[in-house]
Specification:
eight-stranded mixed sheet, mainly beta, globular, 127 residues, 12 strands
């Protein structure tokens, strides 16, 4: 089972940028895909971005495409989410996820299924 720890969240103003990090341990990091999801108060968790095991493929939700960039450093067992041009609608708890594990969540169009989750990091964007 992989352990995931997110960091980098905070309170920012609209238009600002943040970079989230997710450090993984417990499995060989360069062998599985990673993703970011978010959940706003009163809403269901939604897919944000994903990256395959060797960073050859990346995927984004329409709501963040062109503003957010997912990347990974397999040597550091870390995945990143660079968020630019933040909007109040981006306010949510952001979760890092890894392929594999129980209760997998499939993301359409990616061929990826996520079953391991971090504890989340809060991102709040003020108007």
């Amino acid at each position: 089972q992989v352990r995931l720890v997110e960091s980098g969240g905070g309170l920012v103003q609209a238009g600002d940028a943040l970079r989230l990090s997710c450090a993984a341990s417990g499995r060989t990091f360069g062998t599985f895909g990673m993703g970011w999801f978010r959940q706003a108060p009163g809403k269901e968790r939604q897919f944000v971005a994903a990256i395959n095991w060797n960073a050859a493929s990346t995927y984004y939700s329409d709501s963040v495409k062109g503003r957010f960039t997912i990347s990974r450093d397999n040597a550091k067992s870390t995945v990143y989410l660079q968020m630019n041009g933040l909007k109040p609608d981006d306010t949510a708890v952001y979760y890092c996820a890894a392929e594999g594990g129980p209760g997998q969540t499939a993301v359409d169009g990616t061929g990826m299924r996520f079953g391991s989750w971090g504890q989340g990091t809060q991102v709040t964007v003020s108007a």
